[in-house]
């Protein structure tokens, strides 16, 4: 329902804000800390590292997505003699929405489809086909970029995304790379991998 979508979006934005605040916070204290507090700070630092790695990877992913949109809107369509309405605005929105994992790509694809639909149903179909192919390709590109940033294979990220999505839904799909990166850091520090 629309209330579930809104709730998930607000929760995601709040998580993003908290993640940014934790990532920029300095945890370097010279005074001795109680054991629990010290261990908690260590875990928060690892989560912060995981968050930073995934966010910087997401910026690269968004840039690639934007370049693919530019290829479609400013090179391929003009070759067919078609001008996509609001192409410049859609380029900016594609990058901005691309910073939101998974959901952002769906939002920018929807806007592109609607803009193409204003011209013709055939163009909307062609745009949809292009966007679906790009979207599927990006699952592998995303897994490769994020995997490189967190020292994981692409298949590990894809598997984590599938497992988290099946357990937690869309929110799990979006959060999977961050939590998987955190889990790998914990396991590595414990000497288990």
**What overall form do the CA principal axes indicate?**
elongated
Order of helices and strands: HHHHHHH
Q: Biggest β-sheet, characterized?
A: none
Overall mean confidence score, pLDDT: 84
Binned strand content = under 5%
Count, helices? 7
Number of domains: 1
Using the CA coordinates, give the radius of gyration. Answer: 19 Å
Structural class: mainly alpha
Low-confidence sequence ranges = none
The separation of the N and C termini measures 41 Å
Number of strands: 0
Assembly form of the protein = single chain
Q: Helicity, in percent?
A: over 70%
Q: Can you offer a commentary on this structure?
A:
- The protein is mainly alpha-helical and 193 residues long.
- It has one domain.
- It is 82% helix and 0% strand.
- It has 7 helices and no strands.
- The chain has helices spanning 2-24, 35-79, 87-98, 103-117, 121-149, 154-168, 170-189.
- 25% of the residues are buried.
Chain-wise SSE layout:
Elements: H1 2-24, H2 35-79, H3 87-98, H4 103-117, H5 121-149, H6 154-168, H7 170-189
Helix pairs in contact: 1-2, 2-3, 2-5, 2-7, 3-4, 4-5, 5-6, 6-7
TL;DR?
The protein has seven helices and no strands. With 193 residues, it is mainly alpha-helical.
């Amino acid at each position: 329902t629309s209330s579930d979508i809104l709730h998930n979006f607000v929760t995601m934005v709040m998580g993003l804000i908290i993640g940014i605040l934790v990532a920029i916070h300095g945890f370097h204290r010279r005074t001795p800390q109680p054991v629990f507090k010290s261990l908690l700070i260590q875990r928060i630092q690892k989560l912060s590292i995981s968050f930073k790695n995934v966010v910087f990877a997401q910026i690269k992913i968004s840039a690639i997505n934007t370049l693919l949109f530019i290829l479609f809107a400013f090179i391929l369509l003009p070759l067919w003699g078609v001008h996509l309405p609001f192409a410049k605005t859609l380029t900016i929105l594609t990058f901005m929405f691309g910073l939101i994992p998974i959901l952002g790509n769906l939002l920018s694809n929807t806007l592109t489809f609607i803009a193409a639909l204003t011209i013709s149903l055939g163009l909307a179909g062609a745009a949809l086909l292009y966007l679906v192919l790009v979207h599927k390709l990006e699952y592998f590109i995303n897994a490769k970029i994020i995997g490189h940033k967190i020292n994981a294979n692409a298949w590990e990220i894809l598997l984590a995304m599938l497992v988290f999505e099946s357990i937690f839904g869309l929110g799990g799909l979006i959060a999977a790379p961050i939590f998987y990166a955190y889990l790998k850091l914990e396991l590595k520090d414990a000497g288990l991998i």
